[in-house]
Amino acid sequence: MSANVNGTSFHHEAFAAHAAHELRTPLAAMRARIELALSRPRSAKSYRAALQEALAIERRLETLVENLLLLNRPHREEPGFAMAAVALTPLLAQTWSDFFDRAEARHLRVSLCLPPDGLEVRTGKDLLAVVLRNLFDNAVSYAPPGGRIEISAAATVAGCEISVANTNPGLGLQETRRVFEPFWRAGGEIASASHHTGIGLTLCQRVVGKLGGTINVRLTPGNLFAVAVILPAA
Amino acid sequence: MRILLVEDYDPLRLAIAQRLREEEYQVDDTAEGEKALSLCRENDYALVLLDLTLPDLDGMEILRDLRLRGSDTSVLIITGRDSVPDRVRGLDAGSDDYVVKPCSLDELMARVRTLIRRRYGQHHSIIQIEDLEIDTRKRSARRGGETMDLTNREFALLELLALRQGGVVTRREVWEQLYDLNYEASSNVVDVYIAHLRKKIERADRPKLIHTRRGQGYVLGLPARWLASSALLAAAL
Fold first, then answer.
1. In chain A, what residues touch B12 (CB-CB under 8 Å)?
2. CA distance linking residue A198 with residue A219, whole number of Å
3. What are the tens digits of pLDDT across the range A18-40?
4. Where are the alpha helices (DSSP H) in chain A?
5. Which residues of B touch A26 (CB under 8 A)?
6. Model ipTM value
């Protein structure tokens, strides 16, 4: 039995096995962290640190579960799929505001190049927000500390293009061809430094497809890993 | 005892490593399969805790490499892969135990203790040598019923000698099992700890238990050949 996620074929069984593994690992970490804290009397500072770590793991689980549910939801139940005129600049700025602190903490230089006179597309606002959150989360997580993030939106002949680019953490050309595969993650330090589960871009590809657009990635001459979302004109 | 922990999810690896260290194990940890491969080739670990899904290679390759090289290091697979074929594959490839995430840390520690004991042919958590009793679970030792006040490092040394009771434990082995990669110590640190342990264990009115084999290492208890000669002598009488 196989399913198709916007051109990426994979087996349901393999997907379920991957999903189970991805859920079990943070669950194991949360359990281990809590049991470790309770295994002997500790200082208030230690308990606080344990709770903060458990909360960070819970956030990963929350994102993962939300993405898995969205990815496996029958199309007719897709939320926010009602097409409406959406002003891109406020949506981008508002969504980015949730990532501002993390970018600051990692000393990332961020440039937002948004059209001042506004840019409107006819799309599913909530679904597009899911895509933007995943792209911003990836950019903030994978750009090396002190690196760059460039976010832009512009009108094109076909509609509009939203681009989210970050300093390339070390991806090669071969690896960029695999970024949409479910549960694929870059190797080595890139993967171990992240809390990511490898389905964010798979989900983005599917959602953008539902919105009638396309998504692609490329490495720029300026050493950026760039994701472009192209949405059709209204 | 020195343990290698291979797990790519940082929060899980750090929590398990801290618990192991609080249980007084020496722990090297890595998130990368290639690093784990080279660490296994360079060091003689008592146990490897091995995740299978690593960013750069399948953990099974590390297990296969260990067994192909004839290593008897115990391997405990800890993974999210829970299917029966996965478990069978892991055990058939030479792992000594297979634990599916999430699992209790207490249970994991019990399995760690069991595997380390088994590696040295011990099946009980209490090791008795003459009038010396070593409780590997409670991490305590008594001689002639009197509890000894040992530091963590001294207990780890005593436990290593006790697990190999009657056999020679080389200085290199002591060094490898009691010190992890982060430790830098002077070359005579093993001798210093042996001296400390002797002071606490040996009694003037009791048989000597820690013996030095010149150019070889240390033996706790009566060496096997002594026991064999005693048995022969007893049979002859």
1. 25-26, 28-29, 32
2. 19
3. 677 778 889 999 999 999 999 99
4. 12-38, 44-72, 88-97, 100-105, 125-142, 173-176, 188-192, 200-210
5. 9, 11-12
6. 0.74
